[in-house]
Design goal:
single chain; 100 residues; mainly alpha; 98% helix
């Protein structure tokens, strides 16, 4: 009888330890799934961030090109206006000679 009681205690102890180890394995697997999920989320976020940065760089380069083009255009317009003012002044100078 003592042998049977001792065997039952060992069985119960074994079951408790077995369940504890199963629980630890389950928590580890859940943790690994959670870690994998977090890792996947971080990777997706980094990919999205990378695409966003590439778009911003592209937009910045396009803005710089457009800015450069518009500055040249503005400079040409200013030169033309300055040339027209010079032409008007020289025309006025020419007409002043005739009036005198």
């Amino acid at each position: 009888m003592a042998q049977k009681g001792w065997q039952e205690m060992q069985d119960e102890s074994f079951k408790e330890q077995f369940e504890e180890h199963l629980s630890k394995i389950n928590r580890t697997l859940v943790s690994q799934d959670l870690n994998q999920s977090i890792s996947d989320s971080v990777i997706n976020a980094l990919d999205y961030f990378r695409v966003g940065i590439k778009y911003l760089i592209f937009d910045l380069e396009a803005t710089r090109r457009e800015n450069k083009f518009l500055r040249r255009l503005l400079e040409e317009i200013r030169k033309e206006e300055a040339g027209q003012i010079d032409d008007l002044e020289s025309d006025e100078d020419d007409t002043d000679h005739f009036d005198k």
